[in-house]
Amino acid sequence: MKQLLSKRIQEVPESFIRSILKVANQPDVISFAGGLPSAELFPIDALEKACAKVLKNNGKQALQYASSEGDDQLRRWIAGRYLSQQSLTISPNNILITNGSQQALDLLGKVLLDKGDSIVIERPGYLGAIQAFSLYQPTMHSVSINNQGMILSELEHVLTKHQPKLVYTVPNFQNPTGVSYSQQNREQLVTLVLGSKTLLIQDDPYGELRFSGQKKSNFMSLLPEQTILLGSFSKVITPSFRLGWVVAPDWLIKPLVIAKQAADLHTNYFSQRIIFQYLQDNSIDLHIEKISQFYASKKAAMMQSIKQYFPASVTVAESEGGMFLWLTLPVGVSAMALFDQAIKQKVAFVPGKPFYIGDDEVDNTLRLSYVTMDEVAINKGIKVLADCINQILANTKRG
Ligand SMILES: Cc1ncc(COP(=O)(O)O)c(C=O)c1O
Predict the structure, then answer these.
(1) How far is the CA of 391 from the centre of ligand 1 (A)?
(2) Percentage above 70 pLDDT, the chain
(3) d(CA 35, ligand 1 centre) in Å
(4) Closest ligand 1 atom to Cα of 174
(5) Are strands 227-232 and 199-203 parallel, antiparallel or unpaired?
(6) Who is most buried in 53, 322, 333, 352, counting CB within 10 A?
(7) pLDDT tens digits, residue range 377-387?
(8) pLDDT of 360
(9) Cβ–ligand 1 contact at 122 (below 6 Å)
(10) Where along the chain do its domains lie?
């Protein structure tokens, strides 16, 4: 019966990370694998109060079907946040509330991509975007990133040769590498895209989780006509409400709303109302500050353990915030082999391979999330990884 499946779905890669998470989420595993926000900081009491208030004051409305665009008050709040945090003037009419920013990726694929259309994704890139776009069967061109951002010569080549419909970026504390595009890289990237028929997507779930360094320009301020923004409450309040959004120009927002109607009519209205109530009654700035400080100390703990235990030949990409560290092992040390060894000792992480498309030679990178485990577990887990690396290195030398 498998032949009944569409070609579309048969070509979509299974999320390797989701498969890993099944193992990694077992209680006795020290997991650096998932991109799970730290549950200790979920504002449970405040959400309980917000929930009760919504039910008491607006229960009838909050439990009813609602508009596909999303709650007006919440959209206005998001527009206000862009203004206060990034000096961006955005009309609430250009904001569509989605089921997490993940759904925004799917909707963008739906309304923009025909089979064979060219798109650009980062190399390495966010697996969820690769998976979401894959369903629409585009031709994906990956452009490498380093600690300054996209390699512009590679981007220019792809833009000239393939005129991609979109360039997908996570310029702040990228998933998987944790790196951010420099100001200069952003400005130069924009000059390459300006005036073309290419859209630039800035997916930004981690942007507010900055521990150090300076905030950089949002692509919307540099390239307003061609930029699409994605945002999310997942990493700053809670992921389970599945609340995200897309900011798109007038000509695109209407088709996105139609695609949204066809997909699910609207995003869970009850959770929109609860989040809005929460935002009214609490300081999101204080909460984000608390998360950032907590994550910064975990990152410092992980860096400290890496310094203490890992061979100097392992390098770590520079990161000023977010949730991830990106490591490069000495050439010849396979991250997949490391994973196999580490998981036997109940330590999990994500090997880099799935973040590269059609590119099998890159086997010595890996992603570590520092936010989920406490500092004792971080130290213990990193020590186990170091022992495994040293053992693989010793075996390689002997071999
Ligand atoms: C870069 C990036 N985009 C989008 C998402 C999806 O987030 P959500 O759908 O929870 O908003 C994630 C989740 O980890 C992510 O890392």
Answers:
(1) 35
(2) 97
(3) 9
(4) 1
(5) parallel
(6) 322
(7) 999 999 999 99
(8) 60
(9) no
(10) 2-42+285-398, 44-281
Q: What distance in Å separates the CA atoms of residue 200 and residue 89, rounded to the nearest whole number?
A: 18
HEC per residue, 179-227? CCCCHHHHHHHHHHHCCCCCEEEEECCCCCCECCCCCCCCHHHHCHHHE
Task: Specify the ligand 1 atom closest to the Cα of 235.
Answer: 10
In the reported structure, the alpha carbon of residue 101 is separated from the centroid of ligand 1 by a whole-number distance in angstroms of 6
Q: Is the CB of 205 under 6 A from ligand 1?
A: yes
Class of domain 44-281: alpha beta
**Torsion, CA 315, CA 288, CA 271, CA 90, rounded to 10:** -90
Q: What spacing in Å lies between the alpha carbon of 123 and ligand 1's midpoint?
A: 17
Which residues are within 8 A (CB) of 307 and not within 5 positions of it... i.e. 6 or more apart? none
pLDDT for residue 250 = 97
Q: Is the CB of 234 under 6 A from ligand 1?
A: yes
Asked if pLDDT for residue 9 goes beyond 90, the answer is no
Confidence of residue 10 (pLDDT cuts 50, 70, 90): confident
Q: 312-347 pLDDT, tens per residue?
A: 999 999 999 999 999 999 988 999 999 999 999 999
- Residue 229 C-alpha to ligand 1 middle, in angstroms? 13
Check for a shared fold between 2-42+285-398 and 44-281. Answer: no
Residue 262 · residue 118 · CB < 8 Å: no
**Per-residue model confidence as pLDDT tens digits over 178-207:** 999 999 999 999 999 999 999 999 999 999
Hey, what CATH class is 2-42+285-398 in?
alpha beta
Q: Is the CB of 203 under 6 A from ligand 1?
A: yes
221 in Cβ contact with 86 (< 8 Å): yes
Q: Is 128 in the pocket of ligand 1 (CB under 6 A)?
A: yes
Q: Which residue type sits at 143?
A: V
Q: What six digits make up the tokens of 53?
A: 């208030």
Residues 17, 350: contact at Cβ < 8 Å? yes
Number of other residues whose CB lies within 10 A of the CB of residue 150: 24
